[in-house]
Amino acid sequence: VTMGAMEKIKEIEAEMARTQKNKATNYHLGTLKAKLAKLRSELLIEASGGPGGGASSEGFEVARLGDARVALIGFPSVGKSTLQCKLTGTESEAAAYEFTTLTCIPGTMHYKGSKVQVLDLPGIIEGAAHGKGRGKEVIACARSADAILIVLDAGKEGLNRHREILENELQTVGIRLNERPPDVTFNKKAGGGVRFASTVPLTKLGPDPQKLATAIMREYRITSADLLAREDISVDQLVDVIVGNRVYKPCCYFYNKIDTITVEEVDQLARMPHSLVGSVVKKYNIREPLEDDPLKAMLWEYLGLTRIYTKRKGQQPDLNEPVVLSAIRKGTTVKALCQNVSSQMLRDFNFAMVWGKSSKHSPQRCGVNHPLEDEDVVQVVTKTNAQQRQDKNYGAMVQGFSDKYHKKKFDAKKKKQGNSVVDSLCLRREAALGGSIQLLPQDMKVISMKDSNIDFSRPPSN
User: Fold this and answer.
1) How far apart are CA 172 and CA 187, in angstroms?
2) Is the peptide bond before 289 cis (omega within 30 degrees of 0)?
3) Mean pLDDT by 10 residues, the chain (462 residues)
4) What pLDDT does 59 receive?
5) How do strand 114-120 and strand 251-256 relate by DSSP bridges?
């Protein structure tokens, strides 16, 4: 079945290559792209051994720590392990041969009061999306990361097109780099057919966008759905919306070993979008783990991290340990700050006093949806008891606290009673061993569960 899918993929790619792109062929190309995406998805499901969604179903087991996670991806022997050592201080095996790293090695980068988990992954090769060279495990880790740092060898990039190959491998498994999700609403229905609408002119879907969208949905056996486009989307974006399992990741590119190429080539690579050039060995644009450098600043910007300092009423703000919020995870609003500190704080939230760049005046009284900026100072004011009593959910909340308290008290009492029963049985055991009393069968069963080394069935010795 896999060979048949691969042959179909090659046939569709060949047909797309020889088809001219114009308005007349837009519908045909759109249906071909939908078939291609479906075949690739089926191929990934077959390779993973089940309907778990391809590469996301397996990967390296790494605990999620810190305020954000960055995955290092690149070909073998481009300097990923040495780069991670410079970023985090973690000792990772580095050698002059390929595939030195065979598993995922985590490390923690400390920068501006934040803790960023950096994963050093094994090198991948062309065809990694279909499982070559542990490619599925590496790509599964990339899907779970908040951002991706692609490490490239500047000396080999001119001839080998490593950047393009890696982008295609990640694109194949549904990872979209430096893109945002299209502003399209898509809902499946039980019946009623396909309803298609748009608020802007759709210039990239041909003369009849609804016909094309209906044909693409038919490939995925969707006969009834509502689709509303609020931006001028392309055929690829339409397929991504209908499939629904795409992930959108910020990605930056680090060209290592620039000391091996000319200044003109360095200038050309530095002008590439989302790119930074440097040398780990020569310490160009990368320094020691606790020092500031352009690469750490670039990762901070792409991760969308924000430092927030908290303040108690009548006291100075705590400037030593900021609360780090991520625009990728929970957002950078006052609500995200409360969720990061305590769920009870969000439940009892009344208003917040904000000092800093996000406030129009200092301090500004704000609600939970106020967006915060880097190095803002926030004081959260919770509701008083009188305000909490006016809440419509106050009765249920009090009942919940009461049930929790009584359950805890009952469990403690039950545990205490159980201990006293065991203690009394232990005393009876000692007496039985002395021959003064005869143990009941249920007593012997309970005691033997506690001390299985003693045989209570034999008669006591004189």
Assistant:
1) 24
2) no
3) 68 83 76 79 58 47 85 88 88 58 82 91 70 69 90 83 88 89 92 90 86 88 92 90 90 93 92 93 89 92 94 90 91 93 88 94 93 94 87 85 89 80 66 57 52 48 46
4) 54
5) unpaired
Query: How many Å apart are CA 234 and CA 237, to the nearest integer?
Result: 5
Cα distances from 24 to residues 27, 196, 218, 399, in angstroms, run 7, 21, 20, 67
State the DSSP string of 38-59: HHHHHHHHHHHTSSS-GGGG--
Instruction: Find out whether 51 and 130 touch, Cβ atoms under 8 Å.
Output: no
Question: In angstroms, what CA-CA distances link 387 with 234, 338, 383?
Answer: 51, 19, 6
CA distance 455 to 462: 16
Beta carbons of 260 and 216 less than 8 angstroms apart: no
C-alpha closest to that of 297 among 312, 305, 236: 305
Contact in structure between 73 and 150 (CB atoms under 8 Å): yes
Q: Are 189 and 244 in contact (CB under 8 A)?
A: no
Q: Which residue has the tokens 């490239």?
A: 152
Residue 451's contacts (CB-CB under 8 Å, 6 or more residues apart) are 429
What are the residues facing 73 on neighbouring strands?
150
Contact yes or no for 310/317 (Cβ under 8 A): yes
